[in-house]
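#onboarding

Welcome to the new folks! Below is a worked example of what a typical request in this channel looks like: someone posts a single protein sequence, and someone else replies with the predicted structure as tokens. Don't worry about understanding the tokens yet, we'll cover that in week two.

Example request:
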Amino acid sequence: MNVIVVGCGRLGSILAYQLSKNGHQVTIIDQNEATFGNLPPDFRGRTIEGDILSRDVLHRAEFAHADALAVVTNYDTLNAVVAHMAKIVYHIPRVVVRNYDPRWKPFQEVFDLNIVSTAGWGMHRFEDLLLESPLQVIYTDDTTKTAICQIVVPKSWQGRKLRELVPAEDFRTATMVRGSKIMQNSDDPTIIFGDVIYLTTNLERTLPLRQHIEKLMEKR
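Example response:
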């Protein structure tokens, strides 16, 4: 995918690096050239210095050919305007915007945008929304190195068992929700379409788990 990230602060630099590391073409934009120092030395994407509202910057970043856009500056009004422009003018399919100050979130919501409000697990959530992954990281804890992931069961998994589909080493615990009923993984119930599975895993297993789930989905 061709992904553009606007804002090279702590969140933007981590997001751009992770996307690039996972094989995507990444362009990151910031009006302050010094912020590119936040990127790791082995970052393989493009960097563009300049005002994101400049037509020259938009042209150099190839907005017209982008598959996804993340706008993650510290300025909520700017984030909303750029994201709205990307959707309406450039028709970028997937646009995600950062909310820095909760007081400005209603303003961003007016534009009907995908909004991420917290920086703690924000990088994972941005990646999920941009790439439309079947596995969603809904919570992370850097202290305990723990992540909680969500999977909505597709039709192709109907009648299968969780332990048949997901290796035991990829999660610590699993909880499945069917309607209003909660079933623990010790029961290993038969899965049906529409069940929601919550997996608790180690942070470092998140990427392998996502890749495994995506391969299973491709086989459906």
